Amino acid sequence: MNDESEPGKPPYTRGIYPNMYKSRLWTMRQYAGFSTAKHTNDRFRLLLEQGQTGLSVAFDLPTQLGLDSDHPRSLGEVGKVGVPIDSISDMRILFDGIDLSNVSTSMTINAPATTLLALYVAIADEQGVDRTELRGTVQNDILKEYIARGLYIYPPEASMRLTSDLMKWCSINAPSWNTVSVSGYHMREAGCTAVEEVALTILNGIEYVRSAIEAGMSVDDFAPRISFFFACQNNILEEVSKFRAARKIWYELMTTRFNPKNPKSAMLRFHTQTAGASLTAQQPFNNIVRVSYQALSSVLGGTQSLHTNSYDEAIGLPTDEAVTIALRTQQILASETGITDHIDPLAGSYVIEEMTSEIIKKSLELIDSIESKGGALSCIRSGVQQRMIHESAWKHLNSIEDGSMRVIGVNVNQQEEDPIEGQILDPLLAKNQVLSLSKMRLERDEDMVKISLDKLRKACQTDDNLMDFIIDSVKSYCTVGEINQVLSDSFGTWVSPSGV
After folding, report:
1. Could you tell me the domains of the chain?
2. Average pLDDT of every residue of the chain
3. N or C: which terminal CB in the chain sees fewer CB atoms within 10 Å?
4. Band of residue 4 on the pLDDT scale cut at 50, 70, 90
């Protein structure tokens, strides 16, 4: 074999490291967050005790939209799908007893990513952890929010400024931090195909690279810290081929368009999450099998970190038992199957090589089509990607309803069963979160709050990097909602043409 077909060498089709899992396992990074910072801290400690090797924070919807827990739009959503974080007080509880110099933390946050990273940095400062020691990822991928997920706040141009500010700040202050996790996951969950997931994700990545360069950065200053986040669906061979194809496409586009000098700038590193959309409320224990196969595909495809979904997530937030089984799924895969003894074990398979080539070909055709219309950002404004995903989702739904796609327990092999109960959240916890926020406001120095927010407001009217102003604001006990209200007042808001 020539160098190009070897693992650890360009174009990295066979993996980004020469020995892959023989020398270093993927990070087992289970996603967690619910009810309160204290409950989530308890879950983090459980997972770390059970052998998890990295933390992954799920924030509730108000936090993801830059709203405080007592905002009228937060009613009924506080702590439901993630942890509510209103201020530095909550962040302090979330990481209580966890040394930020010894753990890698992923935070799934986008529109208010600058604020949540600022809170993490502030807690690290309190712990005496040097900022250069911080390891982890902030998703910070706002483009897919406009395309598929809908949790954006500001117009695209303002959001891209915040993304670039975060990237530039980290390149100087926290060089080991992954500043954007370009996410195909949510587009795949919304209904796009494997080819569309690869093409649209890489297009968004290219848009972030261009934006950072336009902001005055050199490609090698930030590109090594760009990571990716993909879904893994049920078609094992297609998913393995998808991951291999994505690595090669990213390498070729980065190399030909931006001419980086650092090899890591064109190296696609990615996290995988098993497909939430594939989980069924019917016969939920079947989901353990689905997740196991998806995890196998992720590892055969060369993922750098992995989240395995819990079997009861189609019913509610996962129970401790379900979370433990999900983690054990990864541990069994790593320790008992022999998969880690081989590097890209499916390489050379006629099916895998042909499917990889076909996904590369079709993905590049789609990339060319979007770029001929002005590129990712321009097409988002006119709803091109949004309509594409809607059409693919509609086809997928019809295939299940007409029976051409078989889903065990849903349209075939159905049976009567007793329902299982998911985790039940205490509604008093949301009320207590609001009371805690009110108490914090009463005790803080309002003059310091006003000074910090005024400085941030003035900085928004300049070209200054906003990160240090936001860090100062959170240390002054400004809330997530107050900070993002200043940004909204300065930048405005936006509605997608597709209504997403």
Report:
1. 3-401 (3.20.20.240)
2. 94
3. N
4. low
